[in-house]
Amino acid sequence: MGIGGGDLSVTAARVIAIQPLADRRLLKFDLKVPYDWDNQLVPAEGEIQFGGYVKKKLAVYLDGKFGMGADRLYDWGVGLRFSY
C-alpha cells in the first residue's frame, strides 16, 4: 500500500550534473525519467540551468525545461530563479 492507501506504480531514475564555471557561475543538467507501471508510460523531462551570484548573497538562474518522448508532460518551458 502506498501513501493514502493506494498502490505505488511509478519507478524513477534521476541524474543531476553540475559544472562550476568561472566568475562564480554554474551550469546544471537535471534529467528525470519515471516509469508508470500501470499505464506503461515514460513521461521523461530534463532541465538545463545557467546562472551565478550577482552579489555575495544573491544568485540568479535561468531555467530551460523540456519534455522528452511521446509521453512528455509538456513540450518546453523557461523560468527565472532567484536565490538569496
Task: Tell me what the structure shows.
The model has no long low-confidence stretch (mean pLDDT 86). The chain has no helices and five strands. It starts with 9 loop residues before the first strand and ends with a strand. Strand 1 (10-21) and strand 2 form a beta hairpin. It has strands at residues 10-21, 25-36, 44-55, 58-68, 76-83. The chain has one domain (3-83). Helices cover 0% and strands 65% of the residues. The protein has 84 residues and is mostly beta strands. A five-stranded antiparallel β-sheet has the order 1-2-3-4-5, with no helix packed on it.
Main beta sheet strand tally, sense and closure: 5 strands, antiparallel
Helicity range: under 10%
Count of helix runs: 0
Tell me the distance between the termini: 40 Å
Whole-number total of structural domains: 1
